[in-house]
Amino acid sequence: MSKLKRSLKRPKFTKALHQAPGTMTYVGNKETKETLLEVIDYNKDHYQRYTSTSPEDAFKFEEEQNTTWINIDGLNNTEEIEKLGKYYDLHPLIMEDIVNTGQRPKIDEYPEYLFIVAKMLYYNGDGSINNEHLSIVVGKDYVLTFQEAGGDVFDGLRERIKIGKGRIRSNGADYLMFALLDAVIDNYFAVVDDISDKIELFEDRIFHARTEDNLVLEIQELKRTILRIRRAVFPLREVVNRLLKVNHEIIEKKTESYIRDLHDHMIQISENIDLYREMIRSLLDMYMSTISNKMNEVMKVLTIMASIFIPLTFIAGIYGMNFEYMPELQWKYSYFVLWGIMLLLFIGMIFYFKRKKWL
Amino acid sequence: MSKLKRSLKRPKFTKALHQAPGTMTYVGNKETKETLLEVIDYNKDHYQRYTSTSPEDAFKFEEEQNTTWINIDGLNNTEEIEKLGKYYDLHPLIMEDIVNTGQRPKIDEYPEYLFIVAKMLYYNGDGSINNEHLSIVVGKDYVLTFQEAGGDVFDGLRERIKIGKGRIRSNGADYLMFALLDAVIDNYFAVVDDISDKIELFEDRIFHARTEDNLVLEIQELKRTILRIRRAVFPLREVVNRLLKVNHEIIEKKTESYIRDLHDHMIQISENIDLYREMIRSLLDMYMSTISNKMNEVMKVLTIMASIFIPLTFIAGIYGMNFEYMPELQWKYSYFVLWGIMLLLFIGMIFYFKRKKWL
Amino acid sequence: MSKLKRSLKRPKFTKALHQAPGTMTYVGNKETKETLLEVIDYNKDHYQRYTSTSPEDAFKFEEEQNTTWINIDGLNNTEEIEKLGKYYDLHPLIMEDIVNTGQRPKIDEYPEYLFIVAKMLYYNGDGSINNEHLSIVVGKDYVLTFQEAGGDVFDGLRERIKIGKGRIRSNGADYLMFALLDAVIDNYFAVVDDISDKIELFEDRIFHARTEDNLVLEIQELKRTILRIRRAVFPLREVVNRLLKVNHEIIEKKTESYIRDLHDHMIQISENIDLYREMIRSLLDMYMSTISNKMNEVMKVLTIMASIFIPLTFIAGIYGMNFEYMPELQWKYSYFVLWGIMLLLFIGMIFYFKRKKWL
Amino acid sequence: MSKLKRSLKRPKFTKALHQAPGTMTYVGNKETKETLLEVIDYNKDHYQRYTSTSPEDAFKFEEEQNTTWINIDGLNNTEEIEKLGKYYDLHPLIMEDIVNTGQRPKIDEYPEYLFIVAKMLYYNGDGSINNEHLSIVVGKDYVLTFQEAGGDVFDGLRERIKIGKGRIRSNGADYLMFALLDAVIDNYFAVVDDISDKIELFEDRIFHARTEDNLVLEIQELKRTILRIRRAVFPLREVVNRLLKVNHEIIEKKTESYIRDLHDHMIQISENIDLYREMIRSLLDMYMSTISNKMNEVMKVLTIMASIFIPLTFIAGIYGMNFEYMPELQWKYSYFVLWGIMLLLFIGMIFYFKRKKWL
Amino acid sequence: MSKLKRSLKRPKFTKALHQAPGTMTYVGNKETKETLLEVIDYNKDHYQRYTSTSPEDAFKFEEEQNTTWINIDGLNNTEEIEKLGKYYDLHPLIMEDIVNTGQRPKIDEYPEYLFIVAKMLYYNGDGSINNEHLSIVVGKDYVLTFQEAGGDVFDGLRERIKIGKGRIRSNGADYLMFALLDAVIDNYFAVVDDISDKIELFEDRIFHARTEDNLVLEIQELKRTILRIRRAVFPLREVVNRLLKVNHEIIEKKTESYIRDLHDHMIQISENIDLYREMIRSLLDMYMSTISNKMNEVMKVLTIMASIFIPLTFIAGIYGMNFEYMPELQWKYSYFVLWGIMLLLFIGMIFYFKRKKWL
């Protein structure tokens, strides 16, 4: 129907049916020609950016002092990803989750790294929402991010790393993880803000639209959108909450207050989503009562017209009868008297409907 | 009504009323002529498959190094099952649960084995859903599975064991249990995907159907289906969650991450079910407001027709009266003047309805 | 209204208003002439049954090796019950609860015995549901049961004790308690099954009934019935759950797995009740949309009839006018031309309504 | 609207706005001329009752062996209450809560006493519900109760203390507290019973009432009443639950089982309230579908009448036309033939509506 | 729409999109020319008040014995606030939260101070609600409060400090914090009271209004207002609850009972909000059923008028036909007989509708 719907399409799980567990199968809808690698290697004083299409190129960035962020675009080339996974010793089930776009946001703790799944929601140029699967592996001095296709919410972060603005360059991989999640969550605010605008727009449309034939459909569409956004956002709240409690050596003490800040944001978004969800539910009530109100008005017009003219027509019918002996027909003023009676009836009716507040 | 309904029929518990506890009574609807046994015995290097109709044939597969999977099809022959139960020393209450198809998914821990009840949901050839009671007993080196009738979701698994693909052959009975549950859960995805397709189909039908007389019935049917699927799926989530926490010697350390993966899948399905459930609820709202909308349209047509022609008919009635003294009747152009007046009235009405946005 | 309602009548608590706490007041609706005692005394090899109307007769069954089940029918004779209570040293608040039929299911633990309140739901011969207050006191080697009136769900159990079938004779008072609760719960299944049948019946009636005037009332009745059943069943689930955790010397180790089985059954019934409750809620939706649909159909017929004939009547009215100068009246074929015009209008209307899918 | 509403009026909190915390401000609606004191002093063998209007008179009842119950009627005379508060060393915040009738039921534990706030609900002589703020301070050998105005639910208790019936005289202040709460809760049963009666009355009215114009209003009124009762009752359940767990020297061991009994009653009332709340919600559904049903019936009558007579009127209109060449007009039997045709049409219509089950 | 809505406008989070975490960006709607500082320095015997526009002026109030309250009005001048933040060593994330008006109420504990975010809700002079972001930093002997603009709920508190009324002057910074929160919460009562008045007003309007076209819109507006109030109030309840449990040296023992009192008030408000929310939901039901009822009445009038006069008009039409052979036309009294028949029909119809209770 709308662009929203298409972009929030559910993955077809049946693609992966009857396969051995741990098998990598990309179930998403975004096919890319090749897998693109982007490596950003930095510390307080050093910054290097490198792009490639072969995973092997990433393995040389291995200095202890530096933080290395390797971003992979394109998941349908499972062999390439497998190579990277083997190099960094990722568990087969992680490999499966990276390409399984149906996987809900979660966090898995392994001795050497943390594995986080999240969903990026952001606006495309044409106004449609992009719902993209994002996997993050955070190690001691590296961060791997896996995305379905090019285009993401990290451009501001890339810029901050490059020009060394903010705290990013003087902190390690755990802070980079926080900054990535922070960018993801910031975009949730934008998407949720947009829903709020749409709700206000609908309220106007419900009361002023000419033909409201497909409004229900559109309200349902909005409802479905917020349900799907909710599904992307709410599990991430638990992920962030878990990050607060996890006692992993990768996460340094000073990063914790930033993660608490993330958690605050997640709660704020969650509350907004539930608020807007309730408002959307109200939209339908409004719409239904507006229809009822309009039907009521239609009925009133019909009833007033019919109630006034049907009796009058009956009277006219009486004197249209062809009986030979109808005394009134011969009286001279009966025609005018009849007009008077009909006028009185008319006025009486109008008065009656006025008193009933129908007019 | 539909095939769905029939296949998801509830068992009649009254069959088992007034019996001593622990009495085996098959309450399901699938009668089979005889109980079929299938034994698959394997280890890393060895594979043997054997079928029989007498339980005694299963007892000879007893080597410590091998994993033995004994699958029983057909539950109405309770004596045969009792023999097997006695051989493996199963508790009388387990025996009762194996044939009680009304038993919800659960896990019971015994010193020597784990007992799991699950529900298989899968599509028959004719598109109807099959809801089949499945009991799994997992011992140190054997797995017993009990099904109501032939036909299940384990063909892919059987194939993987046979050709030795994946991790199945190099792992023990606990991994086999995981693989069985994984196959069961994978089919939930297929069933739930289908519900999602049906919901989209309904949205189209609601807006384009000619006669929508039985749509409510069908929406209710869909609602009931998802409620019944929910009942099969949600308790299994708790079973898997319990498997994560159970500290039983049968379950080896390395299998745990696979069970965690199962748990992820169960949460994903549960969320999908609740999402679709909410969407189905919305379908009814959509349908109701569509009916209201259509009724509104019908009312408008009636009101417009009546409001325009009833007053005009009244006027025509007036001049059909047979009074002797009606001056207008003699005037030469009064007929044409009347046509003019009626035309003006007509145009005025049309204008009025346009302004009210009814036209 | 229906028999259901009458039999599930709430007790009038106001009967017991302004009384000292611990005062025994029977608030139920079932008056019996006298209190009937039934004593069943048994062990592995011994069985004796004895009935009486005076409580003192029960006190002689006092052998350590035997299990004694004393069943009391009729609660309005509070003095008789008080005698028994004093003999077995029951707490005054227990005595109050035994005759207070408004007491919800609960379990109280005392050093010497357990006190359980439950509700028996079972069908009378005439198809109405009987909701009866049942109190169970379980001691070391005796079980006391108090019922409002004769007639209960324990006939199967009595038979099993008599003929020594099953495990009952070789187990003690705790197993007897389990067997009593098991009989109570088995009957819940029958009652809930019946609700399910009624729901299916209603679905048919909603779509095929001639006059549906009192369907809402009946649906409400069904809803109320399930709400009341729920009230009898859900607290008992907690009682059974508590029995699982209670660490009382009366309950032997081997009985525990049977109580776990009870708990499984209670969860199953609870889920069924909630499922049927949701289905009943859907019935009302179905009914409402069916009414709307039918109203829509009525409106269509009216609109089609009126829209076709009102304009035609107007045309006929025009040529019924008595103006002297109406040129058409004199033309020879104008009558037939008019018929043609009216036919065209008629066909046009039919075509219009066909396109709107009203026909 | 009704008396119910007036008596359950919310206190105006704005009275107390912009005041320092701990300031005593009576926000209720019941003004009394003077504060009335009633002192009941008793032990096993001794009973004395004394009334006064000056708080100082209460201070002389100070014997260790006796239990002293001081009941104060009238809260708008804050200075008098303050004197008493100072004598018994009550915390300023307690003093504030005693006169703040908007305070919800709660329990505060202090080293020397317990402070309990509850709401008395009981029927006035004229059938309206009285919702009265009650504060209880329980010390070692005294109980203070503060009420808004004269008239309460403790007359039965006063009588029992006077004549020494029941356990009251042989127990201390903690049992008196239990007896007071028990009297409060007993009256909840009466109020809730009355709601249940009203619900049944409404069901009848919905189906048999002549003009149902203000039924919605009354149903809403009932809904609001139960919501307000709920607010008085539910927090008290937590108070009683807290009393069960509090480990205060004032509460003796033997009183605990009585408090457990209170808790049972509170749960029972809570469940009844929620049940009736759901039933009230159903009343509105019933009412709405009854309206729909009646509208449907009205529509049917209209449609039948219009569909039968509009076409017939059209036919009559045809032969009322004044064309010169209308061959049928001259045929001798055409009038009778027309009557035949119209009769056939009439019968056909009746038959059609019968088949549609509208007649 | 209404003033309410405008004043409860959500902040635009998109303002702060793509910024580094910890960046101060004011996202609210209240722009002030300059930041206003108000310093109140007091102890038991001393009181001093000082206002300024430069933060540096605040730093000189630094005596151990005194409590210093520094209130800052205006948040869009982020540099000024940053100076103050640096002086008091506030964490960057606190600085961000102070100006982020979208931040929900929360409490953060730091070693040196507590940081509390709350929302002030109060009425402007013109009757609109003001929703203002308030940040409170509580240190050992100072309290900082940050507000969006001038005008707040603390005037009563300022007066009490000035004239030394109540406990405020003899207590420290923790009691000042309590007094601030108490003032904030007291105003919630006023706002919630107003909602309750509006609900009662709506009930009247629903039943007596002439044109109810925009009532749904206004009910929705009220619903949205209470949802937004809820969002301001509920998180603060958790803040107060946390304050009860926090074990921070700043909060003295004697202040705890006051905080417990705050918590009581928060629960009371929360319950009121949920009660009114449910009542608002009921308003819509009432409105819908009122519309249905009115439509029913309209339909009845139409049906009665049409059912009476359409058959009569048909009869009149019959005798307006121009057949040559219509025997009745010549009979002398047929006109009067016909009037009789029509009168009988009329009376019969009236009788029929009376019996149906439509009249």
UniProtKB/TrEMBL annotation, chains A, B, C, D, E:
Residues spanning the membrane: 301-321, 333-353
Annotated keywords: Cell membrane, Ion transport, Magnesium, Membrane, Transmembrane, Transmembrane helix, Transport
UniProt keyword Transmembrane, yes or no: yes
Signal listed as a keyword: no
Membrane topology of this protein: Multi-pass membrane protein
Localization terms from the record: Cell membrane; Membrane
Role according to the record: Mediates influx of magnesium ions.
UniProt family annotation: Belongs to the CorA metal ion transporter (MIT) (TC 1.A.35) family.
Protein name: Magnesium transport protein CorA
Organism (species): Autumnicola psychrophila
